């Protein structure tokens, strides 16, 4: 019962023990996203990402979740703004953040930037194997696109 679950999570977010409040807020945001209320979910994740009482690793996770929900609609500048702190740091989320930037560039047909992002993932020894495989697949797609062929032959 999704409505009952939201009610319980809302109660925990308001009055639960500190750790449970944060986790309940994540659950509420995820439930909104699942229910097709992406704008509400993004706002909730943004609130978690900027809340100083939330652990920094969870703040970064919220930042990544909000960006992922904006992937289909955001322009590159927005995604770069949302993910900059993750990509430019030693964050545990930097690989996923770079993948989202690459996917955004690809969606916007900026093959040069997409190639740059996915190449950085492939070249980073710390990139998790499954993400490296996806980056390799994206690079294969990019090299096969007409724009990529014309820019690499210049």
Describe it.
The protein has nine helices and no strands. It is an all-alpha fold and 154 residues long. It is elongated, with a radius of gyration of 18 Å. The chain starts with a helix and ends with a helix. Mean pLDDT is 90; it is low at 149-154.
For this entry, give a set of tags.
mainly alpha; 154 residues; disordered C terminus; elongated
Beta fraction of the residues?
Answer: under 5%
Please tell me the overall pLDDT. 90
Give me the count of strands: 0
Shape: elongated
CA distance, first residue to last residue: 58 Å
Please give the radius of gyration in angstroms: 18 Å
> Helix fraction?
over 70%
Structural classification: mainly alpha
| Uncertain segments | 149-154
Largest sheet: none
User: What sequence of helices (H) and strands (E) makes up the elements?
Assistant: HHHHHHHHH
Helices, by number, come to 9
Topology overview:
Blueprint: H1 2-15, H2 18-34, H3 38-50, H4 56-70, H5 76-87, H6 94-107, H7 111-123, H8 129-143, H9 146-152
Helix pairs in contact: 1-2, 2-3, 3-4, 4-5, 5-6, 6-7, 7-8
Task: Give a brief description.
With 154 residues, the chain is mainly α. It has helices at residues 2-15, 18-34, 38-50, 56-70, 76-87, 94-107, 111-123, 129-143, 146-152.
